[in-house]
Amino acid sequence: MRGELYASLVENDQEACQCRNCKGSHPLVKTPNLDKLAARGIRFTNVYTPSPICVPARAAFASGRYVHDTRLWDNATPYTGVPRGWGHALQDKGIRVESIGKLHYRDAEDPAGFDVEHIPMQVAGGHGMVWGSIRREDERVRKDGRMLGPYIAPGESNYTRYEIAVVSRATDWFADAAKRPEDPWCLYVGLVAPHFPLIVPQEYLDLYPLDSLPPFKMHTLYGFENHPWVTKQNFALTGDEGFKDADERRLAAACYFALCTFLDDNIGKLVAALEENGQLDETTIIYTSDHGDNVCARGLWGKSNMYEESVAVPLMVAELGASASNCATPVSLLDVSQTIIDHFSATLEGERPGRSHYEISAAPEEPARVIFSEYHAVGAVSAAYMVRKGDWKLIHYHNFRPELFNLAEDPEEAINRADDPVCAQVLAEMERELRNICDPAEMNDLAFADQDAMIERYGWREVAMNMGAPAATPPPET
């Protein structure tokens, strides 16, 4: 044990790493409770998801393994408890480990590493978004209706109501845990904001007047042209073209930012509950997200690409006695998985690429540490891979030209240096780093083969194309 008796892990859904105000990370979004949390711990400034879409990212985080290792490629291949992950490691050590809220696994009956799953949100129907696994260019399914939902405005949704229920259940859980102060525990709290539908209570939306919003970054309306792979991927779901006018588009962005503040308010309630029960000073809190959101950058909404808005995520580790600090060493959610195991001095068999944040933050910063992400899911006509090393970031698209960005000089990822002769050596080095992790062509083919076999099991395309939620996963009854 590291001295603390408890650990609480809070994960939201789809918060872009830029949408936090602490340390000046966002000039607009108001997150006072996350700011307070950052003041008592380490804020990691270069954090990435192992896959920029819900189900594969969550399975990779649970197991501590890359997506091509788990072979849980997309939103139709949910985690069932195999391979074993951090939750199982804690169970092996006798730690009370439970979850409240969104998991996006297959079924609550699966041995996924929790003693109890309270009001879990799992994939729809136990199978998830099967239609999104049909992704070859000549076979793809394009769903009718706007991905973000038909209604974008102030109000309540099944998601905001579910999040309130999750916070209420967690508050009760903390009170119950306080009655057994001698028992260590780990609680995973899965919040859903700011994931669409973009509906938020009026009081939060009032904080973001439409005329206060900045212009959209590199929007296609301004003449920007997306990479061909990105254009093809974006075909699967109606996104930016689904808005009736510019005002509705700006309202959607305001609702997203307002949901970030709604999320922040709920995190404040969780922290207050710990404090009221005398647990805050003995609890380590880890806060992160499964992936980001483009919020109309490049005319894109949702996630599913390798740009910073989509693939980068927030991460804070707050614990007793810590002071505010930043760590620039690049990390991923696989490191969070290992951190939980290390926190409780637990063990898990098998090699995994993650390293504990305790180890990372105690060592000199490693700006050249390699971080990897991959995408084989809805809309992708081929695999996409990201490698981050030092200032450089490679996006490798199978059978498409790559993108190479210098994030120090070009944080907006506006200038592709892949064809620049000056960067030929850097490009070759980044490609070598990619192949040190996996064979991109082999993994592309393996993902398609696994998805083809799944589609065949369900009854081929005619059946599979109608299986799964068209956009946001419906929450359970609470």
Description:
There is one protein chain. This protein has 478 residues and is an alpha/beta fold. It has a single domain, classed as Alkaline Phosphatase, subunit A (3-Layer(aba) Sandwich), CATH 3.40.720.10. The chain contains 14 helices and 16 strands. It has helices at 32-38, 54-63, 67-70, 86-92, 158-177, 202-205, 228-233, 246-276, 308-311, 333-343, 357-362, 424-437, 440-458, 461-464, and strands spanning 6-13, 41-44, 47-48, 96-102, 116-121, 153-154, 185-194, 199-200, 283-289, 315-318, 325-327, 331-332, 371-375, 384-389, 392-397, 403-406. The chain has an 8-stranded mixed β-sheet with strand order 5-4-7-1-9-10-2-11, sandwiched between helices. Strands 13-14-15-16 form a 4-stranded antiparallel β-sheet, covered by helices on one side. A hairpin with a 5-residue loop joins strand 15 (392-397) and strand 16 (403-406). The model is unreliable at 1-5 and 20-24 (pLDDT under 50).
Question: What layout of secondary structure does this protein have?
Answer:
Layout: E1 6-13, H1 32-38, E2 41-44, E3 47-48, H2 54-63, H3 67-70, H4 86-92, E4 96-102, E5 116-121, E6 153-154, H5 158-177, E7 185-194, E8 199-200, H6 202-205, H7 228-233, H8 246-276, E9 283-289, H9 308-311, E10 315-318, E11 325-327, E12 331-332, H10 333-343, H11 357-362, E13 371-375, E14 384-389, E15 392-397, E16 403-406, H12 424-437, H13 440-458, H14 461-464
Helix pairs in contact: 2-10, 4-10, 5-8
